[in-house]
Design a protein that fits this description.
Elements (H helix, E strand, L loop, with lengths): L1 H8 L3 H31 L5 H44 L1
Helix pairs in contact: 1-3, 2-3
Length: 93
Amino acid sequence: MVILLGLFLGLPVRDWAVLFVTISMVWMAEFINTSLEVVVDLASPSQHPLAMVGKDVGAAAVLIAAISAVLVGLLILGPPLWLLLMDWLSHNY
């Protein structure tokens, strides 16, 4: 949706670069978290409190990356969307 919206808004190249780095950051966090969970499961097949902490920290890293991505998306897509909305409202009311 972000890519389609960026195309619709005609974002400049710099904004595309930031968006792609941000999308990559979230994907990398997810891949690292998945690999961490698999390694923890391999090393500790039975439940262990430290294994749970490791998995929780990996999931928190993904959450932080996702929240950061939302903020970057709002900063990049918000202003042109706001201008578009204000222009639309001024022509319809």
